[in-house]
Predict the structure.
Amino acid sequence: MFLPVLMIGGKCSCFRAKPAHFSGHLPLPRATCEIQGYVYDAKMRSARLARTFWNDPELANRLEKEAAELKRRFNQDFWLADREFFALAIDGDGLLCAT
C-alpha cells in the first residue's frame, strides 16, 4: 500500500494527457513518487537505528522487509514501460501521471 499524498495548501497536482473529467474535476494525486521515497528512506534509517542503538533486531528486520516491499511495489506500479521512466504520481483514479 502506498502512502497517500498530504495536501498542503493544494500545492500538489499532476497532469496527464486527459487532465480533467467532463465535470472539470482533476483527480488529485493519491500517491507521489517523492513521498514513497521518503517512506522508504525513513524505514531504512529506522531499521539501522533499531539494530545499532535500540538493540531490536526484530524491529530492524521488519522495517527492512517493509522497505523492500515498498521498493518492489513502487518499481512495479509507478513504471511507465512505454516511456521507460517512472511516473511522478498515481492520481485519485489510479492512473499514472507522467508529468
Q: What stands out?
A: The mean pLDDT is 82.
